[in-house]
Design brief:
- The protein has three domains: 175 residues, no CATH class; 196 residues, DNA methylase specificity domains (Adenine-n6-DNA-methyltransferase TaqI, Chain A, domain 2, Alpha-Beta Complex), CATH 3.90.220.20; 164 residues, DNA methylase specificity domains (Adenine-n6-DNA-methyltransferase TaqI, Chain A, domain 2), CATH 3.90.220.
- The relative contact order is 0.11.
- It is built from 17 helices and 23 strands.
- 40% of the residues lie in helices and 13% in strands.
- The chain has a four-stranded antiparallel β-sheet. Strands 3-7-4-10 form a four-stranded mixed β-sheet, with no helix packed on it.
- By secondary structure, the protein is of the alpha+beta class.
Length: 578
């Protein structure tokens, strides 16, 4: 493999999804195909090595140290996944092993001198014996000597979707802490004869084996199992012993290079994220216009460096909403009718409807204490409670208690918290209830244009009801928020979906079992209210900037696609050049 070629293109490849993982797989793949290091005609061929292995195995059988075992059929050339270099041989794993066996189910105790290696102890980067349990030493009389693990043993996870296939080589240093170690029944022990365990690890860890291991395993979806007989029959490419060592040395070198490059990439990504967060924080906390323009200039001058990753674009979206609700996204117009006048109009209309008996007076919420205001508002704005912006003929409500047995497909569609996502409502999995049930909850039948907000479950999910949802109903964990015509519903949605609400207000409520957000808290939400005309300008500006974010994400996606194609080209070139 040409490491210089890889280095030249790594920056482009680095942001390609799973680029480093794919390159690691490529290294292993080239290694076991004999394309990573050159062959040396002076090496003793694998055929001679196999004769030595057979002789050693026969000796161990004669001395009673291992059992004879069955004779497995030779590898059919049609079963070989690729052509081997000269001097290599296709073998079955049992041919080069003195012992292949699953561990034994132990009798556990709280603590002893002998740990039990389980699946969770076996990681791709080594062994984590801090997660091991311990065996009752009084039960060891039932253990044959061969069951005690030795340096060089390959330990292979053999059960469980997601964990099956992980493998590693037990090294000497593990035995510096424990004199004896055993494996449990979910781990297969492979003990080789005159073969280099680290090379066999490369083969089993390579995409040739790992890409098919779960599909080839037996058992149910939740408990797939790698049978011991399948391990014994595993077809394996065997190089000369000297070449095995050269391959392992080269793989170690290239893996270290990829580790280093990945660390550098991650450090660059973390630096970009910190710079972006710092720049946006400076922007959203600017105390005056001069500081704001300075902060914006910093972002503008480094825009393409700051926003070259999907995570930073997501942060930009949040900053746009935060600036919007703080009155920093569009300029104020002194000719706008101030929000205080708007509030007086709402109060006058409410008083009229109460006098005419069309609505009830309702409780009067306390005025907003200036000390409770989280930030200073521009001139013409007012702090109000959300309840002041609700339609006068309606109220904030939550909907139907779903019991899980509402089968009618021709019933009323009912929107649950899983359907209310961030700034959108998805109808792909909307449930239905009978019309009779829906009619009992007539206050939450949708008319179109309302805001829905999750008050339990995925707390904070919110979106505006489209006209095509008219007549639908909502579930108990979703709140209906009908906004008055005296306010712009989209502006209120921007407030609810901004960091001001999503982080500052809801953060302490998330993760509290199923307690969620009660309607009284929701009615008392503090909303920064601009003049009506400015609300419209803010919504238009948010739309414009969100469209810019969409373009940025599309460009990043296109760049990642380019990186993917380049990665494939690099893989092809490296394969050819090897």
């Amino acid at each position: 493999m040409n490491a210089d070629f890889l280095l030249r293109h790594f920056d482009t490849l680095a942001d390609t999804p799973d680029a480093v993982a794919k390159l690691r797989g490529l290294v292993l793949q080239l290694a076991v195909m004999g394309k990573l290091v050159p062959q040396d005609p002076r090496d003793e061929p694998a055929s001679a090595l196999l004769k030595k292995i057979a002789a050693e195995k026969a000796r161990l059988v004669r001395e009673g140290k291992i059992k004879r075992g069955e004779t497995l059929p030779p590898v059919d050339p049609e079963d070989a996944p690729f052509e081997l270099p000269r001097g290599w041989e296709w073998v079955r794993l049992d041919q080069i092993s003195q012992y292949i066996q699953r561990g034994k189910g132990p009798k556990y105790v709280e603590e002893s001198n002998i740990p039990v290696v389980s699946q969770k102890c076996i990681q791709w980067r080594g062994f984590d014996l801090t997660r091991a349990r311990f065996i009752d030493e009084s039960s060891l009389d039932g253990y044959a000597e061969e069951r005690f693990l030795r340096p060089g043993d390959l330990l292979w996870n053999s059960t469980g979707t997601g964990t099956i296939g992980r493998i590693n080589v037990l090294k000497d240093d593990v035995f510096s802490q424990f004199r004896r170690i055993v494996a449990d029944s979910h781990v297969t022990v492979v003990r080789l004869i005159n073969a280099y365990p680290e090379y066999v690890w490369i083969w089993i860890a390579s995409p040739f084996i790992q890409s098919t291991i779960e599909s080839d395993a037996n058992g149910s979806t939740n408990q797939v199992e790698l049978a011991t007989q399948s391990v014994k029959n595993q077809v394996t490419p065997l190089p000369p012993l000297a070449e095995q060592h050269r391959i392992v040395a080269r793989v170690d070198q290239l893996m270290a290079l990829l580790d280093q490059l990945e660390q550098q990439r991650e450090a660059r990504r973390e630096t970009r994220l910190r710079l972006n967060a710092s720049a946006l924080n400076e922007l959203t906390t600017a105390p005056d216009a001069t500081a704001f323009h300075h902060a914006w200039g910093r972002i503008r001058d480094h825009f393409h460096r700051l926003y070259d990753h999907p995570q930073t674009v997501a942060q930009l979206r949040q900053a746009i909403l935060q600036l919007a609700v703080m009155g920093k996204l569009v300029p104020q117009d002194p000719h706008d009718e101030p929000a205080s006048v708007l509030l007086k109009k709402i109060a006058a209309e409410k008083a009229r409807l109460v006098r005419e008996g069309k609505i009830k007076r309702g409780e009067t919420l306390p005025p907003v204490d200036p000390e409770d205001a989280p930030f200073e508002l521009p001139g013409g704005w007012e702090w109000v409670r959300l309840n002041a912006l609700i339609e006068l003929h309606r109220d904030i409500n939550y909907g139907i208690i779903l019991l899980g047995n509402e089968p009618p497909t021709d019933g009323i569609k009912t929107i649950r918290c899983s359907d209310v996502q961030y700034r959108r409502i998805s109808l792909e999995k909307a449930r239905t209830v009978s019309k009779d049930i829906s009619d009992k909850y007539s206050k939450t039948i949708l008319r179109g244009g309302e805001i829905l907000m999750n008050i339990r479950g995925t707390l904070g999910g919110c979106g505006i009801v489209d006209q095509n949802m008219k007549g639908y109903n909502i579930a108990r964990e979703v709140a209906l928020i009908p906004i008055s015509a005296h306010a712009v519903t989209r502006y209120v949605l921007d407030v609810i979906s901004s960091p001001y609400i999503q982080i500052n207000t809801l953060l302490n409520l998330r993760g509290i079992a199923y307690k969620g957000l009660n309607l009284e808290i929701l009615r008392n939400f503090l909303i920064p209210l601009p003049p009506l005309a400015e609300q419209h300008r803010i919504v238009a500006r948010v739309d414009q900037l969100m469209a810019l974010c969409d373009q940025l994400e599309a460009q990043l996606s296109q760049s990642r696609d380019h990186g993917q194609r380049l990665l494939e080209a690099v893989v092809g070139r490296l394969t050819e050049a090897a």
